[in-house]
Amino acid sequence: MSRIQTITHATATQEQKDLLDAIHAKLGMVPNFLKVFANSPAALRAFLGLHGIANEGSLDEQTRERIALAVAQQNSCEYCVSAHTAIGRKAGLNNDEIGANRAGTSQDAKAAVAVKFSRALVEHKGDVTTAELIEMRNAGYSDAEIVEVITHVGMNFLTNMLGKASRVDIDFPKVAL
User: Fold this and answer.
1) Is residue 83 classed exposed, middle or buried when 0-12, 13-18 and 19+ CB atoms within 10 A define those classes?
2) What's the pLDDT tens digit per position in 97-108?
């Protein structure tokens, strides 16, 4: 049971209902972590805005999911590992790739560098080495793409913290840490 209220239509203000309805219209469901975010419409709008804008970048969906899986596993967020396993499969990642991502790598050589860099960002609280940045560039990532990786790590770190702090009920097929 979630330790922070999960907003439902029965408990929502009009502003919260409008946000939840917009999410439902786009996704066909409202994931529980967004129902927790809805406690603060401002926080939910901020997350949705960042998420929408970040997904407009040049990183492909599979790389974004690889990063999300690596960061969720590293942060021990069972909700996010479960959610991104389901989303990753939908994006075309197979079980072996998902396992590799959770372990901090990838079967794709370029993506492996981004996953490794993502984990370094979390481990070192952003204080990555020059060598790690050079490795990203040598793998073919531009500075714009490096900034996008950092953005996705930060966004996923936020959802990991919300998932862990709230202990939100997992509404995806559960994947154990």
Assistant:
1) buried
2) 999 999 999 999
Residue 173 corresponds to which tokens in the numbers above?
A: 């097929």
Fold of 61-166: AhpD-like (1.20.1290)
* Alpha carbons 6 and 157: distance in angstroms, whole number: 20
Q: Quote the CA–CA distance of 117 and 126 in Å, as a whole number.
A: 10
SS (H, E, C) the chain: CCCCCCCCCCCCCHHHHHHHHHHHHHHCCCCHHHHHHCCCHHHHHHHHHHHHHHCCCCCCHHHHHHHHHHHHHHCCCHHHHHHHHHHHHHCCCCHHHHHHHHCCCCCCHHHHHHHHHHHHHHHCCCCCCHHHHHHHHHCCCCHHHHHHHHHHHHHHHHHHHHHHHHCCCCCCCCCCC
- Residue 125 makes CB contacts below 8 A (sequence gap 6+) with none
- The domain locations on the chain are 61-166
The answer to whether 6 touches 169, Cβ cutoff 8 Å, is: yes
**Chain segment 70-111, per-residue pLDDT in tens:** 999 999 999 999 999 999 999 999 999 999 999 999 999 999
